[in-house]
Fold this protein.
Amino acid sequence: MAQHHDTHASHGADAHESHGSLKSYVLGFVLSLILTAIPLILVLNDIVTGSAADVVLLVTAVLQFVVQLFFFMHLKEEKKPRYNLMTLLLGLVIVVTIVAGSIWIMKYNMVAH
Amino acid sequence: MANVAANHSSHDHDHGHDGHHDLEALRTMGFWIFIITDCIIFGTLFATYAVLMNSTAGGPTGAELFEMPGVIAETFILLTSSFTSGLAVLSMNRGDKKGLIGWLIVTALLGASFITLEVTEFLKMIDEGAKISTSAFLSAFYTLVGTHGIHVSIGLIWMIALMLQVAKRGITPVTKRKIGNISLYWHFLDVVWIFVFTIVYMMGVR
């Protein structure tokens, strides 16, 4: 985020779009509003029910995450090597392991039931 | 000493960087690492909630307690504040100090109304007898949603402190990095809220 490549032509390609533009922020905002409206309309009005509703909810939430990462947090504009991206991926692996692992082990834990 | 400094900067110049720039970029990366650790904290709290969400011990369930209009308002308020904190960064990049502080004020006001709504919701639930000690479900609920609320509150205090600093020192590489970091933090809190909204509230009431 805190890069300023005003003088350095060598970064020209990245520098061009860095920090995002008003256009990309507005687009990101509109997308995030749409991605919030979709589950609200579909699920609260019972248009989609059961496990299909879970899928809609989770997919829109993950897309919302992606929108925030790329339109607002400018992850793709990071200069190489992409340490921030690598850290994020490591973190996500840990998070998915914790969440999926906990649910799985509690669901099949016969002692608990 | 001056000689060393001069050497240093000319050396760096060859690489198309300046030393300060590298240090600020490194600090931003440190902030990313902090965000990831926070991500892991929320991951464990989400896992706890997912495991305990049906353990209501005869107490009220999410479907009985949650009132969606308030939660939907909170969601749109936080989404908008994520956008306005982005506009603050855009103003900063243009060197527009007034715009930067103005958008930060808007962001902070939105954040404060989010917290107000959330606290009101909590108080109402407690009034109805849904306390943190009522069931495992509610313990997990208050811990998860409350941790997010505490993050937003700390972000608000931090944001106000930064506004004062920017007003005093102007837009320097250091304040630029700090504003960039709080903006990252704010977007991250928005992401966490989206998952709270989806997993706790939407899946709770349907």
Observations:
- Residues 4 and 19 of chain A are 9 Å apart (CA to CA).
- Confidence is low (pLDDT under 50) at residues 1-17 of chain A.
